[in-house]
Specification:
Layout: E1 10-11, E2 18-19, E3 23-24, E4 31-32, H1 34-40, E5 43-44, H2 45-49, E6 58-59, H3 61-65, H4 69-113
Antiparallel strand pairs: 1-2, 3-4, 5-6
Bound molecules: zinc ion (ZN) (2 copies).
One zinc ion binds next to helix 3.
């Protein structure tokens, strides 16, 4: 059966293609498809920060640089979190490197101490 119906369809604000799903900028409300968001360099704080609790943190490059007033505070908080995340990552790596070098040093110290750290059943001593 053929019927005429009014259907609401979504179109990307950037490429104009019809899409089933669009990304929405939390600053200006611009709606683009995944490909356009990617090629325009939209900033996705939500997945960057690895949690969902605070909802979407997606911004187009314009709003990421210059967030409009209503979301400026939220955007600043996202930025703060993103910076913290980078800092934690850096500290984690530094701590890991330090721990690894201590492990190596312990191994060297044991080796040069001549102390047998393992006793085997079939050894003579
Ligand atoms: Zn598009
Ligand atoms: Zn925007």
């Amino acid at each position: 059966m053929k019927k005429q119906a009014t259907i609401t369809a979504m179109f990307c604000d950037e490429c104009g293609k019809r899409q089933g799903w669009l990304e929405r900028c939390m600053g200006c409300g611009k709606e683009v498809c995944y490909d356009c968001a990617k090629s325009e360099g939209w900033v996705d704080y939500k997945s960057q920060l690895g949690f969902q609790q605070t909802g979407d943190g997606l911004f187009c490059p314009t709003c990421d640089k210059n967030p409009p007033k209503p979301v400026a505070t939220i955007h600043a908080l996202y930025r703060q979190l993103a910076d913290l995340e980078v800092q934690m990552e850096r500290e984690y790596k530094a701590s890991r490197a330090a721990a690894e070098s201590i492990h190596k040093r312990i191994a060297r110290e044991w080796a040069s101490s001549g102390f047998k750290t393992h006793v085997y059943a079939d050894s003579d001593d």
